[in-house]
Specification:
Layout: E1 2-3, E2 7-10, E3 13-18, E4 21-27, E5 33-36, H1 44-53, E6 61-65, H2 71-74, H3 77-83, E7 88-92, H4 93-98, H5 102-116, H6 120-123, H7 130-136, E8 141-143, E9 148-150, E10 156-161, E11 170-175, E12 179-181, H8 203-211, E13 220-222, E14 228-230, H9 232-257, H10 262-273, H11 281-298
Parallel strand pairs: 5-6, 6-7, 7-8, 12-13
Antiparallel strand pairs: 1-14, 2-3, 3-4, 4-5, 9-10, 10-11, 11-12, 13-14
Helix pairs in contact: 3-7, 8-9
Length: about 300
């Protein structure tokens, strides 16, 4: 099943959707909440509204887990920390090292501002100074491969390094639900058979990361975009994503070798994998960036 709207997924596990962008909330027995990727600054106000609709108080969010360092994933941390001063942000040592580079933080701040301006109704409310933004982008708890975050006696979150979309990409498996919260290393789900590769950093590394999960008995996958899948769709997506990634590499080379123009090959790849009817600015930009990154790898 494909689930697109905010709501209950499993016991104490929720999908929070804002347009096409998704994040996931895990609720402990004491009511504290672990939230994945809060999104860009323009999302923070709407995030509070979504929480209210689900009877989940935003002020109970005590921890954030990060899948990767893009503005559409973490740009809202500045505003969120203003609302939640004791918030703990969790990520990898690679993320921590990356965020110590002023030029990276400056680029993320500028990108967050640019993205938020595409949401004019909230743009004037969705900004923090660079100094506030820089201070907010810190990893409070460093996670390594196979670390387990204890939510309560019944629920843990297992961390898995999944390079592919970014070198530092991380996935999180919520146990005992065996539900994986992932980034675009696990592609874009467009429906049966149309799983689009999301290996911006490295297509082959993304395949290797996805293969780590093919032998797990996952009940569901929560994507960065377009929702969550459960049941039989999980295995089908993983298999299709691996096959489509391998096909995109092999078939594009074959087509070019047979005299098909580069422009035609590129157009076909975009039409099949990196076009969406959903007008969410974050999704459209992510698809375009991945498309260009994939082409750069194919034509290198």
């Amino acid at each position: 099943m494909l689930l697109r709207s905010s709501g209950f997924l499993y016991e104490r596990l929720y999908l929070i959707a804002l347009g096409a962008t998704c994040r996931y909330a895990v609720v402990a027995e004491d009511g504290s909440i672990t939230l994945s990727d809060p999104g860009c600054s323009a999302h923070v106000g709407a995030l509070s509204d979504r929480f209210k609709r689900l009877a989940l108080p935003l002020e109970r969010v005590s921890r954030v887990i990060i899948t990767h360092l893009d503005a559409d994933r973490i740009g809202g941390l500045g505003l969120l920390r203003q609302k939640l001063p004791s918030l703990q942000v969790c990520g990898s040592a690679a993320m921590q090292a990356t965020l110590k580079k002023p030029e990276v933080v400056r680029a993320l701040w500028e990108e967050d501002k640019r993205i938020s301006e595409q949401f004019p109704a909230v743009a004037t409310q969705a900004s923090v100074s660079f100094e506030e933004f820089q201070k907010s982008l810190t990893i409070d708890r460093v996670l390594t491969e196979s670390d387990a975050l204890q939510v309560d006696e019944d629920i843990t979150i297992r961390c898995v390094a999944t390079p592919g979309h970014r070198k530092h990409s991380m996935a999180y498996v919520v146990v005992p639900h065996e539900f994986a919260i992932v980034d675009e290393t696990f592609g874009y789900y467009h429906g049966r058979g149309l799983s689009a590769p999301g290996g911006d950093m490295d297509l082959q590394a993304a395949v290797a990361s996805v293969k780590k999960f093919t032998n797990l008995n996952l009940s569901g996958i929560g994507f960065s975009y377009t929702g969550a899948i459960t049941g039989a769709l999980v295995k089908k997506h993983l298999e299709a994503l691996i096959q489509n990634t391998e096909d995109i590499i092999v078939e594009s080379k074959k087509a070019l070798g047979n005299g098909v123009s580069r422009e035609e090959v590129d157009q076909q790849i975009k039409a099949w994998f990196y076009t969406s009817t959903q007008r969410d600015p974050c999704l459209q930009e992510s698809l375009e960036h991945t498309f260009k990154s994939v082409l750069a790898q194919l034509h290198s």
